[in-house]
Specification:
Elements: H1 21-37, H2 48-57, H3 63-75, H4 81-86, H5 89-95, H6 102-120, H7 124-128, H8 132-140, H9 147-156, H10 167-175, H11 185-195, H12 200-216
Helix pairs in contact: 1-11, 1-12, 2-3, 2-6, 2-9, 5-6, 8-9, 10-12
Bound molecules: iron/sulfur cluster.
């Protein structure tokens, strides 16, 4: 009996090789950081809702403080859309006090969660099931949600390939002559997204690694000799 033909073998995964000089430099940056810090597997949250909460709470503070605030919410069983929406803003502010700017952040968090309740009947899965641009625009329409916060939610909660830019990204690229001082958020985001593949896991890790670099080395007074990017080309 004639045997059916063997199924075609899947081609092995090919490593991505960027076409442009900028793409190669960015990939080199990523590889140096990954080799130094290892995979970060962000976002440190259990659910998309927790990512959203963390994205608001982490504005202008470090993650250790955010963890304390989230731990307060968890300890009281408040990490649900219904609980957070029905909790008076003043009480929410007290629970998230360790994150700093707690009155402002409580209002911002309420704005964001009320938006989901009012526009999407509280159905987060439905909200995240839209086109990426619609998710982003929706988030940006909320008072207190800026580009970095919106894109963090799009990337880490909705799992869509959008590169998150923060002050560290700007500083590192500018110190390495990859972007001018006056580059906008959009300029820097486009630099990554135009020269690297649209890949959620790459963007996820890359942003996390940049944050670590900024926190540990690329401070106001940079610690270049110890930094993993010290060997990166065209360093000024
Ligand atoms: S600390 Fe120095 S080597 Fe490291 S990213 Fe900043 S400027 Fe570059």
């Amino acid at each position: 009996m004639k045997q059916p033909p063997c199924p075609a073998k899947e081609p092995p995964d090919q490593p991505f090789i960027p076409f442009t000089h900028t793409g190669r430099r960015l990939l080199e940056m990523f590889q140096l950081l990954l080799a130094h810090f290892g995979p970060q597997n962000w976002w440190p949250a259990e659910t998309p809702l927790e990512v959203m909460i963390g994205a608001i709470l982490t504005q202008n503070t470090n993650w250790t403080n955010v963890e304390k605030a989230i731990s307060n919410l968890k300890g009281k069983g408040l990490i649900s859309l219904d609980c957070l929406v029905s909790l008076p803003t003043a009480e929410l502010a007290q629970e998230i006090r360790p994150a700093g700017y707690y009155n402002i952040k409580a209002k911002r968090l309420k704005n964001l969660l009320n938006y989901i309740v009012d526009q999407y009947h509280g159905d987060l899965a439905y909200f995240f099931n839209q086109e990426t641009d619609a998710i982003r625009e929706g988030l940006l329409s909320v008072n207190g949600v800026g580009q970095e916060t919106a894109d963090s939610i799009v990337l880490y909660a909705a799992n869509r390939p959008l590169f998150v830019v923060d002050a560290y990204t700007h500083r590192i690229l500018s110190r390495h002559s990859m972007a001018p001082e006056e580059a906008t958020y959009h300029d820097i985001q486009s630099l990554f997204m135009d020269h690297l593949p649209e890949d959620v896991s790459l963007y996820n890790e890359f942003h996390a690694l940049i944050v670590l670099t900024g926190k540990h080395y690329c401070r106001k007074n940079p610690l270049c000799p110890e930094c993993p990017l010290h060997r990166w080309e065209e360093h000024q």
